[in-house]
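request received
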Amino acid sequence: MSEKIPAKIRLRSIVDKVYQNAWDAKERGEPVGWSSSKFPAEIAEALGLAVCYPENQAAAISAKHGGQRMCEHAEALGYDNDICGYARISMAYAAGFEAEEKAMPQPDFLLCCNNICNCMTKWYENIARMHDIPLVMIDVPYNNTVEVGDDYVQYIRGQFDDAIKQLEEISGRKMNEKKFEEVCANSNRTAKAWLKVCSYLQYKPSPFAGFDLFNHMAVVVTARCKLESALAFEALAEELQENVKNNHSTWKYEEKHRIMFEGIPCWPQLQPLFKPLKENGMNTTAVVYAPAFGFAYSNLDELMKAYCKAPNSVCLETGVDWREGICRENKVDGILVHYNRSCKPWSGYMPEMERRFRKDLGVPVVSFDGDQADPRNFSEAQYNTRVEGLYEVMEEYKAKKEAK
Amino acid sequence: MSEIFTMGIDVGSTSSKCIILKNGKEIVSKSMIPVGAGTSGPRRVVEAVLRESKLSIEDLSYILATGYGRHMMDWVHSEMSELSCHAKAAYFLYPNVRTVIDIGGQDAKVLRISPQGMLTNFAMNDKCAAGTGRFLDVMARVIEVEVDDLGVLSAQSTNVINISSTCTVFAESEVISQLAQNTHINDIVRGIHRSVAGRVAGLAKRVGVEDDVVMTGGVAKNNGVVVALEEELYKKIHVSPLAQYAGALGAALYAFDKRES
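response:
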């Protein structure tokens, strides 16, 4: 009898396969694309095009401590160190600087959607010029309202249809409607399973360490349209259900407190980031990626709307709502905010969000300075003091609550 | 009642402070050595308070360390962050305190305190040294005055000038440029204090400022910064003569609580 493969192994192999597919395609002489994380992946997938994800690559390089080297290469090329660390790493790689930490084939076309941030546009334009390759752009304007208006839907739909035409030309294939529907169904199924996995963080104690989601995220970014992703997340949900039943958890420490970790983690310093949390029994039970990537749609208009909803493209009210929703559901006692030097849009609205979290949720909110990719922007001692401070305040709140 | 002695040690980035407390109320001895984490400061400051109090380590019921270098003190009973310790000391010294502003050697923090003396929230400076004691040290060196004289000099200022609050390095260039233009030292020092105050006030407003406001930490000794902060926040700021010892005092108070529990 064959042994059941743990879901986390299956999830990891899916990401590996995405990159292997790209290498294989390159070898066969087929075009390989680079895509931003929230470009409508359904199009390329339905056309059978191999695609790699520079944000995912940059995170992997950073986590393996290659981030600073690549950032410095980019700076030597003239890119300022105020530019996003992912962008610097990616542009250095595109310019030919090798990264054994996570190699991927150079691009033949680019898929850029600025719903994730506007730096993305210039980043991809630079790579398009470096390689003289086509850039397929979908512009998603910042959403000032909670609801996505019909004008937005029409504007994005026009670009979506145009992107299909451009990619038909690049791939030399015609879009097959049936295949497209199948891919959309997979994408929805993955989103649903992803949300189910995230929902297990509401259990007390949690059946898993919330930091695990940062790893699983890679699959939602790189392979959300693949059936195997949906199946792997469904398997993970089953494992978590078992954990709940058997009182097991991948969080191996006492769960004294539950926090929301706001922002992208500092990939180069995952260990220092995690250390004071585990030492003080603080499990991360809320991260904004749950609602940000768990989008479902039942028709094309809804698909357009779904791609309007990324952390940096929704209005403040929606952003607050997402976060406060998961904080309440997952019963957090405090919030740790990463002021990410690489991500100005995300960090820029945090002071107001912090104010609202304190007022609406009545929990302590503490922030620290860091960077998603450039290790030079993080100070471990400063981080530790802030985390210990948060722990002590949460302890005070707890003592007060218990005294009542 | 037998006498209970507890010790609090604050190992800061630029100085070491230590206090011995009797029965959680009375300061028996205190000392400060102007070198901090990773130096002989912690050892010397402990020796100094023991000498002054005529006590030995064995006489102490509980020892608690705080400050940047607290993790290096492996012989103490426990450690706590300086945030909680400053809050504890401020409440001990001023029971009506609701906001604490602590500017130390390399960080600045603003603490919100509940009416019961509980630390409910806090904000700290970002990675930049602007708005901290280090910023003042750098500026004092540039204008060739002692850092302890800054308060007196700024009190004699007659003109308001602006020094950037964005970056220590840029601010240093600005100060040099003011010197080159023959701007009076007193006005430059006042500008420097306003720069620190502007930075810290921004931090304070993030967590909300409520009376009474108490300032702790080494920079509280500099009346120029205190006045500039009062102007910036439109609040009276209380400063205890023990401001620089607040971390050590809070640690000694926590040590007393922990011994009891």
